[in-house]
Every structure is written in structure tokens, then in C-alpha cells.
Amino acid sequence: MGMRGVWLMLLGLAIAGLAMVLGFVVAPGAQGFEGDSYRIIFWHVPAAWTSFLAFGMLFVGSLAWFWKRSEWGWTLGGVAAELSLLFGLCVVTSGPIWGAAEWGVPWDWTDARLNTYGVLSAIALFLVLSRRSQPDTPEFRDVFSGIGLFGFLLVPITYMATRWWQERHPGPVIGGGDGSGVDSIILQIWLLAFLGMTILLVGQAMVSWEVQKCEQRLAELQQRMD
Amino acid sequence: MSDVVYLAAAYAAMIGLIGWFTWQLLDRLKDVQARIEAVEESLSNPTDSDE
To answer: Among A70, A120, A173, A207, which is disulfide-ready with A64 (CB 3.0 to 4.6 Å)?
Structure first.
């Protein structure tokens, strides 16, 4: 599983890298945006979509632990929390850099999309840090999974935030109704980057799964030694 | 600052995060596999550790 995961990570990175280059070289200027700083979106937006996939995995893992007390679900929760954090951090670092270029300020505390996404990433950070620092007990697993389920509730809210309370973050361009839309070349590059990041996510999940299983095996062996 | 500087900073941050995460993942895998091997070895030769 480990080596296949590594190959998938390399493939995903190559595809996402190609999309980034196409975003610089081939994509036309975007309507409503001046200059080239908008080209940050060729990774920023697919990273956000990929983070939603990771939060979906966290939801499934957390539910499986609560519902069935599934070891599989517990392992998936740990894998997904790390990946949610990674892609969440990609979004919350690149977004403010674009905000600084386009708006003149990196963050707007009155914008719901920014704040809900910020909370979502903070939840992922909390889950990763707590999993590494707390002893593995059924009580801790319940708390972890409960927060994982709560975190997922923020995904549809974050997704809809620009429709319900648009302040500063750009509105939806896919399925946003009349007046929304995006150039077909930009859309194709977005989808290519999303494909690359999804393959990267799968590869990282496979390697992370292997790490989690090995860590559990090591803990069992150490118990036997004690 | 020019747009190119913002673009470079954003992509450098994302590439750095993905690269760091991937590197630490592979490093953790290598480390935990080595530790399992060492523990299994000491479990299969319990007398070695007493000497």
C-alpha cells in the first residue's frame, strides 16, 4: 500500500503542477479581476474542494466509530484529519495572500466564508494535535469523532456562505445562478488541478493509513513488552 | 508589491506545505517501521536485552 501511495502522490503532484503551469501560461485574464494575482485560484480553489473531500472522509470515519465502534473508522478519522489540515492550510495561506493583493487586506472578519473556513481548518488542527498528544482511550475516540462530525457540518455552511451572506469573498461561479460562470479554459484547468489534488489525496491517504496501522501495531507490541 | 510576488508567495506556501507534509509522512513511515522491527527482534530474542 505504501509504495502504491507514493506513486499516486507523485502522479497527483505532476498533474497539479501541470495545471499550475497551464494557469500561468494558457489561462486568459479573469473578468472582474485586474492583473495576474487571480492566478492563485488555480490551486486555491481545487485545494478547497479537495479539503471538502478530506472532511467527508473524516465524517465517514467518525460516523463509523460512533455507530459500529469500527477500528477501520478510527484509522480513517486519523488519516482524514491530517489531510483536512493539509489542504485547509493550503487554502488559508493562499487565500489571504490573494486577499492582500486584490482587496488590500489579507482577512475580512465580517466575511462568513473566510470565517467558517477558518474555523473548519482550526478544527482539523485541533484534531491532529489532540490525536498526537492524548492517550488512545474509548473516551478520547468519542470526543475526537464527535468533533469530527461537528466539523463536517461546517462544510455545507462554508460552501453556501457566499450564496447566503456574500461580503467580500467572490461569489460562486459554478451553479451560482444567473450572471455567474467562468471561462471554459479556466474551468478545465481547475478540474485538471482538482483531479491532480484528488489523486494526491488518495496517495497520501494510502501512506498515512499505513503509518496509522504501523503506529497501532507498535503500540500493541510495546504493551506486550511491558 | 507586484502580482508576481503575491503569486510566487502563494504557490511557494502551498508547495512548501504539501512537500513538508509528504516528507514527514514518509519519514514517519520509515521511523515506525524501523521501531516495529526493533521491538519484534527484541521480543523474539528476550534474553538479548537482559545481557
So the answer is: A70
Range A143-150 average pLDDT: 92
- Comparing CA positions, the residue from A150, A152, A146 lying closest to residue A65 is A146
| Cβ proximity of A61 and A74 under 8 Å | yes
Q: Which of B1, B4, B18, B49 to mutate to test the interface with A (most CBs of A within 10 A)?
A: B18
Question: For chain B, what percentages of helix, strand and coil (3-state, to nearest 5) are there?
Answer: 90, 0, 10
Over the stretch A103-141, which tens digit does the pLDDT of each residue have? 888 888 878 788 888 999 999 999 999 999 998 899 999
Residue B38 near chain A (CB below 8 Å): no
Q: Which of A13, A40, A79 has the highest number of chain B CBs within 10 A, making it the mutation to test binding with B? A: A40
Contact B16, A198 (CB under 8 A): no
The three-class DSSP label of residue A59 is helix
Model pTM? 0.88
The residue of chain B nearest to residue A226, with distances taken between CA atoms, is: B43
Distances (CA, A) of A56 to A52, A154, A222, B32: 6, 11, 33, 27
Which residue in chain B has the smallest CA separation from A197? B18
The predicted-structure confidence for B37-50, as pLDDT tens digits, reads as follows 998 888 888 665 55
Q: Which residues are CB-contacts of A187 (< 8 A; sequence separation ≥ 6)? A: A174
CA–centroid distance for A50 within its chain:
5
Q: Search chain B and give the residue with CA nearest A83.
A: B21
